[in-house]
Structures are given as C-alpha cells and as structure tokens.
Fold each of these.
Amino acid sequence: MTHDAVSSPDLSRPDAAALLEAGSAHLGLELGSTRIKAALVDDSGLVLGTGSHAWENEFADDSWTYSLDDAWSGIQSCYADLVRDVRERHGVELTQLASIGISAMMHGYLALDHDGEQLVPFRTWRNTYTADAASLLSSTFDLNIPLRWSVSHLLHAILGDEEHVPRLGQLTTLAGYVHSKLTGRSVLGVGDASGVFPIAVSGDAFDPELLERFAGLDAVTDLPWSLPEILPEVLVAGQDAGTLTSGGAALLDPTGALQPGAVAAPPEGDAGTGMVATQAVDPRTGNVSAGTSAFAMVVLEKPLSGPREEIDLVTTPSGDPVAMIHTNNCAGDLDAWLGLFGRFAELLGHPVGPEELYSTLFGAGAEGDADAGGVLSYNYISGEHQTAVPSGRPLLVREQEARFTLENFMRSQLYGAFGALAVGMEALLKDEGVHLDVMYAHGGIFRTKGIAQQILADALATPVALGESAGEGGAWGMALLAAYTASTRHGSAATSLSSFLAEQIFASQELSTVQTDEAGMAGHASWLAGYRTGLEVERRAGEVLA
C-alpha cells in the first residue's frame, strides 16, 4: 500500500475571528442518515468550525422514517454545537453568515398539502416496497427508475389509493423541505432533483416528455393536480435560491443571535455534495460516499448502452450526466460489530475510545488473508436491490475449513461494507466499459488512514484518492456550494463549478492516493465470487427469519 502524506489545515489562522465577525463565512448543513453535520468555511474552503447531532431513523407502520420534529430539534442542536465550536476556537459569537446551503439524504417521499403541512410520515430512501410502481415507471419511461426515487413512492401511493393523494400540494425532498422553511422558496438543486424525477438532456429541468408520459398513466388521469404543479423548481449550482429569512434564522438558531440575509445555495442531495467534496465533477472521475448506505458516482463521457437496473442516471450539481451505483447498506453492521468489541473491552476493564477501537480493528483487517480466509459477511440491515435481496438480515457465514481469525473476520467485514457496491460497479466498469482515472472517497469509514481506502481500490481495480477534508463529508461539500453561490451573486465566480473547485478550493489541497495491489485485487475477486454464491443464503435468511 502506497500513499502520500496528508497535511492538516490551520484551523485557527489570525484573521479567522475577523472574518467570522464580518459575517463572511459559509455554512453547509447536511442531514445524513445517522448524523446531522455542519461545516463552516471561508472562501477557500478552510474549515472554521463544525457541529454535529446524532439521530436515527425508526421503523414505524411498515416504513423507515424520520420525524420532522426530530429533524428540527437535531438541526438546532447541530447549529448550537457549531456556535460553541466557533466560540471555543476563535473567541467570537456567530451572528451572521455570508451564505448557507442545505443538503440531506436523497429520494424518498415527503408529501405536503397546499399550506406546507405534512400529509404522511416521511418515507425514506430505505423503503423498498415500491417495486410495482418503479417497474411501471421504468417501462413507461424506457429508463431505469429505482425503487427509492420520489416518483416511485408517489406512484406507489397513487396505486394504493392512499387517502392523502388528492390533497397533495407539494412533493419535495428532505433538503428541499428544510430549505423552503429557511428561505420561503420551493426549489431543488438539480442533483437532488435527479433523484425525484428524470432530468432533461439540458440538465436544468425535469424531462418534459416524461412528465407527459406520467400524466398519461391510467391511475393518474383523474387526479386534481399535475406533477409539474407539485414539484419544486429545479436550479443548477450557483443559481439564486433565495436568502435566509428572519423566520428561517429563528428556526436555525432559536436564541435569536443569528441574523437573516445569508445567500442560499440550491438545496442538494448527499450524492451531489459528495461529488463536490471530492472534486469529482468532471468526466473520468468519480467518488464513493460511504456511511449507513454507500453510493458511487461516475461522471460520464458518453451515454450508456441503454437502461440498466443496476445503474441510476442522475446529475452533478451543475446538471452533467452521472451514473450512480447505490447500495442501501454499508457501515451500519460494521459499526454494530465494533460496538460489540468496544463493550467487550469495557467488561475487561480496559475501555478504548472510538478512534483507537476502529484503528486497531481496521489494522487487524489489513493483516487478514487477501480472500478473507473464506469468511463471508453480509451487512444487509435492510434489503439490497443491487443483489436482489428483498429483505435484509445481517449474516456471517463460512465453510468449516475457512480460516476464521480476527484478522480475516475484520477483512471480511470491510469487504462486506462495499460488497453490494462492488457488484454494481462491475456492471458499469466491465459491462459498460466506463473508464475511470481515479475514484475519490469520503465518509467516516475512511478516517483510519489507508485501510478502507486500499480495500476499495482493490475492489474497484481503480486508484482511490482521499482529500484532507474528506472526513467532513457532505456538510463540507454543501458549504463549498454555498460559497460558490455567494461568489456568483457577487460577480466573482469562476466560469464553472469545476473551475471554482479547481482554482479556489483544491489547488492547495493535498491528496492521499492509494494504488491498486495485485494480490489484493486477486483476493477480493475470489472473495466476491464466494459472496455472489452465498447470496442465496442471505435471501433465504430473509424468508425464514421473518
């Protein structure tokens, strides 16, 4: 394994306090699947402060959901944590922002009436009961429409004659909802919008022909609204998405210290902020975002051969076409196992902190056999469409002669975190012949330097690069989009988002890049073959352990 050193940015430079007091910082806020995170940056992307708040989805009434009350209390807690961090780092109170941007988990179903009141609990990307609706849409559009897309959830509700459907006034995403409450504007960034409904070839609006096809469906013709009437306006990166209102400032900061007026960036999905955070916005680049779920985004040079069930077509925040490989599961089961080991250490009277726990056990995984000794790990807390598993059951399985050591167990856990992603990426890289020069990565699983990064490089047979701010993830990416929007408003923006990132943000950033390892690639290929074979066991587990 080879990689370059990563330098840490200076977070307490002399002029930071003056910049903050002048209200010249940019805030990115992202509602992720397990944490709400905030990142505050200057014009060059330097992180001036962070905040976070842990939250969890719940399974209620046969749906994975998050309460919007929990969302607001979490946002306020996260912002308060950011204010505290800024005060401790720089000795100033945060009262004014230059710009703000909201990001969140993509997809799902957030249905509101004409007054903006929620009609049914938020249905997240994790719900997979929309198969019939997605299949009908895919055949109608001649395009792969995933189960988790908002339009799939909408048609599912229509086909089920759900009581609230005729009263629909707005259909949006979690990011779009929060943005509307902060600014009074019902808009979506095109990247987030591309997980709601297909985007036109122009890259700046919903596809008008497919909107007409949707309207022609038998189940839709008698409804009292049309889809264009209830969908938000689509914006590309840098466009005017409003400003933080006085009511929005009070929602974000109930203490009343925060002043209104910050420029608002178009709200984006976590896929788009991941691309920005890793500078993966140009053809032949891609990024992997790894958290509770994982997805790979590859910016395309040319169209694919045709619709493929494994591949979603979305866009960058600027509207350029992207192939997306999405998996419902990534680090959730891995985190649960490490929590078990952490508890064991406590019982022994030698508790260890999270950083030491993860680095120690990840290090053990790096020492495991290249094929993980025949140990197979399925991290399926929920169903996994990439591998045709309708109902997930976390599973560890091995043959009697497998080399079951701690090192191989941990290597299998790391392989398993990216297992479904590796299956999907084969369709893109091998079957479609898409070329990648480098894959950028971000997410908490990469905090232990080099290890998960090497696993991913060998799994994808592609060099994997990690930036110095990758650990900040989507909140940092959203802050960069906010800074870009502010620069366009002031007439000082680079000609494109790509140029802005290259010239203003990443020019001084160092990357840690790992190359592929021949033995690692061969070992992973052997492990993945066993993983594919064992999928039938995982499917049966879902049937038997109901």
Amino acid sequence: MSGAESEALGESERGAVSEAGRRVAVRALCEFTAREGDLDHRFTPAPSAREGIEGHARVQSRRGDGFEAEVALSADVAGLTVSGRADGVDPAANRLEEVKTHRGSLERMAANQRALHWAQAEAYGALLCAERGLESITLALVYLDIATGRETVLTREASAEELWARLEAHARAYVAWADQEAEHRAARDVALGALAFPHGDFRPGQRTLAEDAYRAAATGRCLLAEAPTGIGKTLGTLYPLLAAMPRQGLDRLAFLTMKTPGRRLALDALTDLGADRDSERLPLRVLELVARDKACEHPDFACHGESCPLAQGFYDRLPAARRDAVARGFWDRASLRALALEHGVCPYYLGQELARWADVLVGDVNHYFDDGALIHGLAQAEGARLGVLVDEAHNLVDRARGMYSAALDQRRLNRLRKGAPPALSRPLSRLSRRWQDLLREAEDHEWQALDEVPGGLLGALQQAVAAITDYLGEHPAGGDPALQEFLFEALAFARRAETFGEHSLCELERHGRGRARLAIRNLVPADFLAPRFRAARCAVLFSATLSPPGYHRDLLGLPDDTVIRSVPAPFVAEQLEVRLRRDVSTRLRDREASLSPIVAELAGQYRRRPGHYLAFFSSFAYLEAALARFREACPGIPVRAQRRGMDEAEREAFLAGFAPGETGIAFAVLGGAFAEGIDLPGERLVGAFVASLGLPPFDAYHAALEARLEERFGRGFDYAYRVPGMIKVVQAAGRVIRGPEDRGAVVLMDDRFARAENLALLPDWWQLAP
C-alpha cells in the first residue's frame, strides 16, 4: 500500500506540529540543562509521594503570617515560556524556599541531585525577581528529614541580574533543543504521512488487521484482534499506527512484548519500514528498552561514580551522547550499547534518558503496565498522546497478575534476623512474633485463604520498613544486601496491602516449621489495567489466541467500547490433519495407563511421515515418564527433551535441533518455552502432539480463584480452568502451520477434547479427521 493508498485507512488531515516544545516547566528545564557530575544510584531510602506532600505541608505550617506557599510563576525567557510553582516565598525576609524531603544523612545525597536542587531554586528566584521587580533575593534550600522532622537550611544571596543570566543560559540551551525537536517532529510527520507499505502487497488477512488497527487510532478506541499465525501481525499493526501518528497527533508509540523474540520481530519490522537504513532513513526514533541486568556493562561494580567508570561523569558526557543519539535515530540494544561506550556512559541509563525523545518504544509489557512503569510515567508527565500495541496479548492476564502480586517469606526474615545490626533487632523481632501469632491463630492447613491482610503483622511490617529505611539512610554502606532485598519485598507487600480488595486474594502457605509464606495474589488484573488503557489514546491488543474475547475483555479491564475482531485464517483445512484420540485420558489417575497409547501414537505418526515433531505434556514428571517409555519401545527413533531450568543457550541449542534434513521427536512441557513464540516453518516442524488439556491444577488456590471469578463474572470454571488451558493447547498446536506452503498434523490426546465446549475454542479453520 502506498502513502496515498494509506489515506483509505482513515482521515487525511495532518495534525499541526506541536508547540509544546516552546513551553517548559522549571523542573523539566533544569533536569535537561543543569544536571552535572556522576550518575549515582546507590540505594537511598526516599520518601514516598504521600510523605513528600505531607513534608511540604509540614514546612509551610511552620512559617509565619505572610508566608506564601505554592507561588505560581511564569515568564518568557529567550523565546521560551518557563513556568512552575515555587514552594514558598517570605516577602518580609525577601526569601524564596525550595523544599526537598529526604531520609537519613544529607551527606549521602548525590552531588548531581544537589546541583539540580540549586538550579531549580535559582530558576524560581529569577522568575520571582522579574515578576516583583526585586534587585536581589535570598535563596533557601530547605531539606526536611521525614523521620525526624528536622530541617536543614542552606542559603545563598543572589542578584536578580545573575539569576536571570543563568536562567537565560538554560533557556537558550533548551530552545536550541526544542527547535531541533520541532524540526524532527515536522519531518517525521511528513514522512509518516507518505509512508509506503514495504512489500508489494499485504498478506491474506494482513490488510484487514491493518485497517482495523488504523480505525482504532482514528477513533481513540481499543482493539482486541485475534489474528492467525503467519499473516504478519507485527508489521500489520505497526504500519497503520505509524501512518496514524501525524493524522491523529500521536506523540509516541509503545510496542509491548511478552518475550525478547517479540522485541526483535518489532525491530525487524521497523527496519523494513525504513527506520534503520543507510540511505533515505525514515526520520523515526526507535528505542529498544532492555532490563537493567541485561544492559549493565559492569554487574560487579556498584552503580555510582566512585565504583563504575560509566557512571563517573555521566551527566557531563550525557549532552554529547544525546546529540549523537538523535542524529542516528535507531537505538536497538546493540546500537545503544555501542553509542554509550563510545561516549563512556552507562547504556541502561542512556536508554532511560533517550526514552523521552523516542517516537517508538519497543519493550516488555511491564514498561507500561507495571507500578511506576517508565512509558506510562513519561506519558502522564508530558500529557503525551500514546498509541499502545500489545503483542501476544493472551499472556497479559497472567503477566499482569504477577505485576500486582507480592509475598513475604518467613525464611528470609529468619535469616535476616540472625545477621541484622543491633539497631534493627527490636523491630525485626516484633515482626517475627507477629508471624508466630498469625500461624497460631490460622488454621493448620498447608494452604489457606484469609479474609483480609493480617493487621497485626502488617503493622509490625510497616514499623520494620520504617526502621530499616532510617537505618539505611544513616549508614551509606548499607550492610548486608539481604537487608535491601527484604526492604524491597516488604515495600511491595505494603503497597499491595494498601490496595487490597476483591480483585486479590490473601493466602497463607505452610511448608514446615519456620517456612511460611504470606502472599497477596492478584486474581483480576482489570482493576489495575483499566486506568492504563484509559490513559492511552488507543490500544491494539493482538494474538493468535484471544477466544473467547469476553475472557480478555473482562480480566484485562478493556473499555466497554472496545472493538472485537477475528481475522479469518489464510490457511485451509487440507494443510493440517487434526486428529483426536478419544481413547486416551491424561487425568492424573490415568497417567500410567495413558503412556502406552501415547507412545504408540507418536511412533505411528512418525513412521507414516518421518520429520520433526513436538510432543507436549502437562508436567516434567509426565514428560519424563513418557520419554522413558518411548525410548524403551522405540530405540530407533531420535528423541530429545526439554529440561527444567534451561538457560538461554540451552534453549537456543534445543531449537537448533529442528534442522532441515534431520528428524526426531522433541518432548516439551505445555505452556513452557517451546509451546509458543517460536517459529519453525516448513520441514523444521511437521507435527505436534498434545497430551493434556492444559488445565491448571485442581488445588485449593484455583478453587478459590474459580469461586472469585464466578462471583464477579459468572464464568468461574471457564475463566479459571478451561480458557487458560485451551489457549495453551492452541498456542502449542499453532507451531505447526506457519505459512501458506506448510503441511502438518496435530494430534490431541484426551477424551475431553471431544466435548463441545472445548471444541468451540479450537480455530475455526481446523477440520477434525473422522
């Protein structure tokens, strides 16, 4: 589709270039121009947002009559409108206050933070002097220790002339950048307005998906699109959203994935569209977001300038690295690393800085949906119009449940108590006693659901958090790293406890003496995800397995006006032989009896058509039993198996075994690393066996989950068991047919597959063999 043809996807008006670059808040201006020195990410216990607000109010309440709080200031400076709110002004003393809250020793505060604070105070001072005609002013940095209530006040005398000169210097530096950004935005929007589809034509079904995705952007709605494997969903959603950016005034796109291979597919699609080529490169800035532990160059060094050479002088070298970055525009993991090392800065934190200047962010779903997510935070701070794409969206329910769950481990506490400093002995002992009280009061079961988060234990936990936080604030070395780990775990639990409700479950598990675990497990992520979907201008969620759509709409909290689409498969029934083995039961009580017919089926299919096969089982124990029986019965057929805890290199070697010209059966676990997200086209995979319905275990937790989902949605068994299980089955079977030329077989082995309610969840184009 040409740029002209793309007009057919929706409206043709092109949005005006944003003038937001000519307005800037004092904080944003200073963060861009005034930071200097080392990167310093040593753990510093910081007040929460609520504590910060309360701290500011406490300082203001201590001031006398006539003190002015939250003073709005604004002025045009070097062609830039600079605005903000000064924390406080004392007209009688001719003093402006900038208030910052902290915990523990001020000496531990990073130098770059102190420089930023002074720059903000100076900027507000310049604005105040200009507005009130002052010749000079006293600037005061007021540091309030949240724990003690003690104020530390640092002051400077400054003339209006020198303050204005400094503010002008900041503004000129920012204006030059803002002008560049406006030019980039204009060039980007012109190029995207004429963006051509990179291939001669769409694949079957791909155009339908693209049109639906564009309409979602044009109408500001969510789209839930089930589209079969092999039609090019990544390009089929990226292309229309990019085309919509200038027409719908979208500032940024976020392409969110569940696994690393999904990021690579998105980056490859963007390369096809011209985002990364030597000549006539599309003026589009693309950033791959990588986890900190994957991007760190020196994992054995502490993250500050005294330890890591890439943290030393980070902010001094950042402007040059940033200028180079925007000139290049395509920042995948390898490119970003090379650029960062060229400038001697940390790759991870350079990426965090570049995120605000990127047009397309490619990263894990947690970067938008998790607490404190970078992409969501940027969009909220900037008021940006964001388009969100979620790949393999059938996984988002489980991923989001994990994001909004937290747990406390009694063993971690017991280990910590043994080596804790004396100052923490009392609060940790108190917490330990509350654990014992809870265990005595609770029923003596291995697993138990509690009606609420235990108040006594939660109170002791909050006291321990405060004590540990204060201790770490006063002791820069921090002591045992386990202390920080426990603090993070406790803070996460306390945060979840604050929002505890019907969307979550509080559970107590016992695994022997001193080995209890208390968890808040999210059951319905919709309550947390719904605000994120509302915050986006549009969202497109796509996958090959999104049936029934009501399951995903309900559990993800999608808006009521979400558009539901099912893209017809480009495949025909003749490409895939689908057989049911109704004489096999994979129920736990029947596992031993199922082994012989399963082995016979695998061997028979392999002998009829030698090639590469995947055989999926519900657990490693079941897999190992079937593998042993198969080796004994069929020693001449090559086999290999997935193992517990395979690392990335082992997984790659496993997949490399599906080489053309070779044959064999690979045994794997349903729902594991090889059941979805892998591409084995043609002769690399000719068939799959699924010896399981993929149902979660029928244990006490899932019984409680079923009851909660039944109460809320009236679909308890389906939402807790049937749908998640059948999604795994269809995903696993979907490895076989990847393109229009593929031919293969799928054998579903369990009598329950023949039930109407399960057959209804299989792809429409499958035709069961008689």
Amino acid sequence: MASKLLRGTFILTLGTYISKILGLFYVIPFYALVGEHGAALYQYGYVPYTIFLSIGTAGIPLAVSKFISKYNALEEYAVGRKLFQSGLAIMFVSGFISFLTLYMLAPVFANLIIADDDQISTVSDVVMVIRAVSFALIIVPFMSLIRGFFQGHQSMGPSAVSQVIEQIVRITFLLIGVFIILRVMDGTVVEAVQLATFAAFVGAIGSLAILIWYWYKRKPHLDNLLKRDKGTIDISLKEIYKEIFVSAVPFVIVGSATMMFQFVDILTFNRAMAEIGMANVSEQYFSTLNFKAHKIVIIPVSLATAFSLTLVPLITASYVNRNINDLQRQLNQTFQVLLYLTLPASLGISLLSEPMYTFFYGYDPTGFGPEILAKYAPVAVLFALFSVTAAILQGLNEQKFTVLTLLFALFIKLVLNIPLIKWFETEGAIIATSIGYTVAIIIHLLVIRYYAHFRYRLVFRRSILIILFNIAMFAVVYLVYHLFTQFLSIESRIQSIFIISLSALVGVIVYFYLSAKSKLLHVLFPDQVKMIRKRLNS
C-alpha cells in the first residue's frame, strides 16, 4: 500500500510539474506574437477567471477525493459513489452559475480596469476577453471533480495524464490560433487574445475526454468494488458537504491569494497611472509586472513550497497526537528548508534578471523589464512563506486565521496600492504587495507560536547562517556573471541561456559546498543525504 501511495504521489507530482513547465515556457512564443498589449489583455481576462474558478469549485473536488478515500478504506464504496454523483451535479450547477456571473459582470470589471481613453485597450476589448475565458467555467469544475474521484481511489494516473493533456491541447490551440489570426488572417491583437483565453475551454474539453475514457476503461473494476460494499454506514450528504465546506473553503481562499493580489492591481493600476498622466504606458508597465515578471518569479515559489508542504501532513499528525517534540522539529525543518530553497533562487533571478528577461521575452533596450524583474524577485520569499504558514495553520486546525489575515492583507494592498503607484509607479505595486504579505506572515507566525508553543530561536540562528551563505554565493555569482558578460551578450537569447546556466551552476556549487561543509545539508535533508550516501556506498 505504501509503495502504491508513493508511486501515485510521484505520478501526480510529475504530471503537475510537467503542466507547470508547459505553462511557463509557452509564454515565450505567445509574447513574441501578441506583445505588451496582448499580455496585458490576457491578464485582464485570466485573473478574474481564476478567482471565479476557485469560487465555483470551493475546494469540493479535493475534499471529495479525501472523503472517497476515507470511505473506501472502510469498504463503504457506495458512500463514495453517492458523493461523486451528487458532486458532479453540484459542480455543473456551480460552474454554470460562475460562468453566467462572470459573463454578465464582464462590463463592470472592464470599466474598473480601463481608466483612461489614452490606454491602448478599450472597455469593449476587455469585455470580449473576459467573456471568452468565462466559458471554461462550465467544464473545469465538473472535470476537476472527476479527477478528485480517481484520486480518492488512489488512482493518480488519470489526473496526471489529464493535466498534461489539458495543457498540451490548450497551448497548441492557443499558439496555432493566435499565429493564424495575426500572421495569416491579419487579425487584431484583441481577436488573438480572445482566442487565447478561450483556449482554456478547449483544453478543458481535451482533459474531460481523457477522463471519460479512463472512466469507461475502469468502470468494471469500480462496479466490482460496489458489489463488495459493506453497507453499514448511512451518512447524509448534508453532513458530508457541511464538513467539506468548513475544511476546504478557507484553504481554497488562501490558495487564491496571489491571484487576488493581482486582481487588486488589475482594478487599481491603470487608474493610478492615469491620475499621474501615464495612461499611455500603464498597460505596458502592468503586463511587465503582472504577466512577464510574475511568470518567472513564481518558479522558485512552486518548487520550494511543494517540498516544504510534504512536511505539513506530518505536522498535522504530531499536533493531533500531542507529540510536541516532533512538532517542534518538523516546524523548524519546514521553515529552514523553505528559506534555504527560496532565498537563493529569488536572489539568482534578481541578479540574472537581464539575461533571464532576454531569454523569455527578448532583449529590452530600455532596461525597464529586467529592472522590474530584479525588484519583484525577492517577493518570491514572501509568497512561499505565506503559502507554507497558511498550510501549517490548516494543519493546526486554525484555518480561520488564514482567511482573516488574507482579507486584512488584501485591504492593506487595496489602501496602499494607488498612493504607492502614484509615488513610485510600477515599483509601488510591488511595495504594496510586499507590505500586505509581510503583515499576513507576521500574524501567521504569531498564531503558530501561540497554538503550537513554537519558539523561533533555532530558525532565527539557522536563517542567519543561510543568509550568510547566500551573501557569499551572491558575491561569487556577481563576479562570474560580470566576467561572462565581457564576452557573452545579454542581447542574444542563446548567449543569455549560457550566461544563466553557467552563473547558476557556479552558484549551486558554492551554495552546496558551504552547506555540506557546515553540515547544514545533513540537518535540513537527513533522509535525502542518507539515501545518497547509501547509493554511493553500494
């Protein structure tokens, strides 16, 4: 059973990472086709869609998978099937309502987003883009529940494969469609972005087709399980869904935190820029921050957070069993691992912002894009810390604090965004985001300290060590980077790849050497170090 669980987790994780990688690198050809205007328009549609998707699903697919797994373990297979069938109906209705709501509210959002006639995009442009992406809300919640059903049966293959197929279909349709509209049919950027956002609907259909195929393939086995049903539990769906909403909704709200912060930017950025007479460049600046820079900055967040969150179930078990020593050790390890992985990655992106920007989006002679990326990159540490501290609070069964702190942080962002953008332009939005996240993280840390009786002394001491290693690594990479730029050009995409690869390699070697010498690696990754040593000695 353990090996099956590990195999399933590996398959699902692999599928998730492949999807994320595809979702990252498609922006290179996409941006080359649609430019600044198209990138801004795309964000105007996609961020509201993502928030409405979170509202439409309300965490039900993930929660349903947990309940099905729970009742399957008790051999009460009929309960899981009944929950699945009712969940499909709920997801279809909630998805359709979310679609209608977003479709009808599109003009309202568009009028809030477009603040001045000097902007490149018009209200009607934004309305068309939002409405194009809204159709995906009809299918995606329904599809997500089927994934949850398979995961509840410890079958991760269908979810992993459908995720990858969804991305492949979406990206293929998007890139081919945008190319045909712009280069063959001589269409407009607005028409191209409409089709690009509608690609979410097409990708969802591809994913749903794969899941239906898996369903018919595995239905005989699932029906055999029903025949073995004990039938000793008669629990009402009302009770189950009450528990689902109480446990899942706060986690879903927190999972949408980044998108909600971006949504505040969508509603306020153009308005603030228009008020200081910069409406003609506001969309260019907005797309640089919220589309181009954000796509790169989120890379280390995904990797570090995924690694750290593997410790959260252990934290939950220790807390429930009142095993204080294990809880303290696991919290220490979680915070240290998070900082150890995220800090060097964000510093590396900041230092190598010019070649990185060139690699993804082409050379920027103004230097504005790399400058924003360099200033935005350190915020990755805050993104990761917020996600992990929120997950820890979930493990401590204090998720109500995560909702309250997020709402408070969003309020701070909303209040500060316009004045800070007026004073510092694009950097003002970064500062407002940083302040909002910092306040939320501090509250999370205080709540963890109170409920877990956790002391941060060891984390603080190790953090100083990690910071010192990062300073040493940064200094070496800084010298190496400037040495490479003497004979390699950051204006070339190919040469930028070499600069990034060689500089990153030097940074990894320095960081790894210092960590190994100080035994920090052994403390943070004891199981991994033991496994490597065992393989080397065998």
